[in-house]
Each structure stands twice: as structure tokens, then as C-alpha cells.
Design a protein that fits this description.
Layout (H helix, E strand, L loop, with lengths): L8 H16 L2 H6 L2 H18 L6 H8 L8 H15 L9 H11 L16 E4 L2 E5 L6 H12 L6 H15 L6 H16 L8 H7 L1 H14 L3 H38 L3 E2 L1 H7 L5 H13 L3 E4 L6 E4 L3
Antiparallel strand pairs: 1-2, 3-5, 4-5
Helix pairs in contact: 1-12, 3-5, 3-10, 7-8, 8-9, 8-12, 10-11, 10-12, 11-12, 12-14, 13-14
């Protein structure tokens, strides 16, 4: 059975806009997509998804953990991030329509955080907001059957992937199959579903926008619960995806070129150089653009700098 939802003019408009944006970010973009930008987006994704769940670590601390550096912070928060890093680094190994793969992802995401990681709940649960019970999840006996139906729905080739990803996210949150980790699993699995058809979603941190509009996220879930259809949540999530793609396209137009120049220059292996040397390689850029590039290269720890202004010299950071 197909989960209930309506196709509204808003949904049709957003699907059209997103399809155009995906076209602009297709294989060509992925081929030249800066590894540094991929890393930054992965950090944003992990930070935002866990922040929604109350994790206190900053993007800088997450960056340090990715680089295998020690971080001072709550042990639980550090463990959540380390688990998420491993899961997001291996996104391509998960199969969207496989319940076994889904449970494996939960086991890895919640490892050493809960006793029953990787298993559906064995008791009833309710979600409390303030002093009110916001949602009573289906009985635990029904969870395996409901989830199997949901995975069967993902195999429906007549449904649009964009729609299926939103419907799965909402329905999974409604079923609440785990005692803990449902929110981060919903967001993770929507990414898994989308990236099977559109690889660019592996690097799209739409969780960042969810984090910034968290009240609207929960409101869309609640309204969908009340009307018994996922339509409001689909509209919310498609808008999030649209705005996230828009942001990535803007970021591409503004920054990708300087990152590409920096990484190309870095790979040349010139151990010591000046701004003039940099401009000799990129003859079509101005002195101001070269200065901005090199300042960014220092910030990204590609280069080290000595001296000031016209006397500045740069050395390759080989670490």
C-alpha cells in the first residue's frame, strides 16, 4: 500500500525547480567537485543532524575528530560524532530499500550509545513535547511489518524518488521504530534514498537548513500526524532540498573556482613561492584575486605564510 499523501501545486512547483537544480549540479559538477568542499559539507551535515538531537560539539571540533585529533567534550557527544563520521563516510554501501541495511546503519550510528542498537524497539513509546504527549507510536509488535511495508514502497518504480524520500522520512518518524536515534536515522536514510538516483546528495548538507528551521520541521511532522497524510511534511522537505541546492549552486559560483585553483597549485608541489609565482601559473587573475586565493589557502592549511603584504612568502604545508 502506498502511504497517504496528496500532490499539491506547491509540491509540483518544487519538484520542477529541484529537477532543474539537479541538472545544473549533475555529473560534470561532481567530477570537479573540490575534495575540500566535500569535506566541509560532510562536516556541516554531521554537525547539523546531531545538533538537532542536542549534541554540543562545534564544526571545528568535528573537523578535529575527522582529522583524528583529540577533542575535549562530553563523552557521549564525541561518540555520537565518531559514529556519524564512520556512517557518512560509508554512505554508498547502504541500500535504500533494504531493511537489513537500514538496521546496520542504526547499529553503527548508535554503537555504544544504546543497548539495542540495530534492533527495532520491543516496547511502546510516546513523544512528549513540554507537558503534552505529541505522538503515540504504533505498538511495537507492528513495527517490523510496518517497516517492511515501507521498504516495499521504496521499491515502487512509479513513484518519484524525491517524493519517496520525503514519504519514507515522515512515515519512519511516525512509526518510531527505535527507542532512540529515529530523527538522525530519518535524515540519514532520506540522503541514502536520494543519492542512489542523484549522487550529488551525498554532499548536500540539507540537515543544515533543517537545523535552522527546526520548529518548522517538527510542526510539519505534527500537522501531517493530525491530518493522517504526509503532504505538509513533503512540502516542507522539498522546500528544504530546493533551498539547500540553491545555496550549493551559489556556493559553487562564488567559491569553487578559487578552491580548484588552490588545489591545482597545491598538487604542483612548489615548496616555496610568492604571490607573483602564483599569478604566473594563473595568468588571467588579478593581484587582488590572487591575494584572496592565498589567504584562503592559508586558512585551509594548504600553505604557511611568512612576512607581510608585498614581502609575503608562502611554503607548502606537507602535513
Amino acid at each position: 500500500m502506498k502511504p497517504p499523501y496528496d500532490i499539491t501545486p506547491t509540491i509540483l512547483k518544487l519538484i520542477s525547480l529541484i529537477s532543474e537544480q539537479i541538472g545544473a549540479l549533475n555529473a560534470t559538477y561532481l567530477d570537479k567537485h573540490s575534495p575540500q568542499l566535500r569535506k566541509q559539507n560532510r562536516i556541516k551535515t554531521i554537525h547539523s543532524s546531531l545538533k538537532i538531537e542536542g549534541n554540543t560539539l562545534t564544526e571545528d571540533q568535528i573537523t578535529a575528530l575527522i582529522e583524528n585529533k583529540r577533542v575535549i567534550g562530553p563523552q557521549k557527544d564525541v561518540l555520537e560524532v565518531l559514529n556519524a563520521i564512520r556512517v557518512y563516510d560509508g554512505l554508498s554501501k547502504y541500500k535504500a530499500s533494504s531493511s537489513k541495511s537500514f538496521l546496520l546503519a542504526h547499529q553503527q550510528l548508535m554503537k555504544d550509545l544504546v543497548l539495542d542498537a540495530g534492533n527495532y524497539r520491543k516496547q511502546g513509546v510516546g513523544i512528549v513535547k513540554g507537558t503534552k504527549v505529541a505522538h503515540i507510536a504504533p505498538p511495537h509488535e507492528n513495527v517490523p511489518f510496518l517497516m517492511n511495508d515501507l521498504f516495499d514502497y521504496l521499491k515502487n518504480k512509479e513513484e518519484l524518488t524525491l517524493i519517496k524520500s520525503c514519504v519514507f522520512h515522515y512515515e519512519m518518524e511516525f512509526i518510531h521504530p527505535f527507542l532512540d536515534g529515529n530523527g538522525r536515522m530519518g535524515r540519514l536514510w532520506q540522503t541514502v534514498i536520494l543519492m542512489e538516483k542523484y549522487p550529488v546528495f551525498e554532499f548536500l548538507p540539507f540537515e543544515t537548513l533543517i537545523s535552522k528551521t527546526q520548529d518548522n520541521y517538527y510542526k510539519a511532522l505534527a500537522i501531517s500526524d493530525n491530518i493522517g497524510k504526509s503532504t505538509p511534511f513533503i512540502e516542507y522537505m522539498l522546500d528544504v532540498i530546493h533551498k539547500s541546492l540553491e545555496s550549493l549552486l551559489d556556493y559553487d559560483n562564488r567559491i569553487i573556482k578559487d578552491i580548484d585553483r588552490l588545489e591545482y597549485f597545491y598538487l604542483l608541489g612548489i615548496k616555496e613561492f610568492t604571490r607573483k609565482d602564483y599569478m604566473h601559473v594563473f595568468k588571467d587573475i588579478s593581484a587582488a584575486t590572487a591575494s584572496r586565493d592565498l589567504k584562503k589557502g592559508v586558512a585551509l592549511k594548504l600553505f604557511n605564510i611568512t612576512g607581510n603584504h608585498n614581502t609575503s612568502k608562502y611554503t607548502l604545508n606537507a602535513e
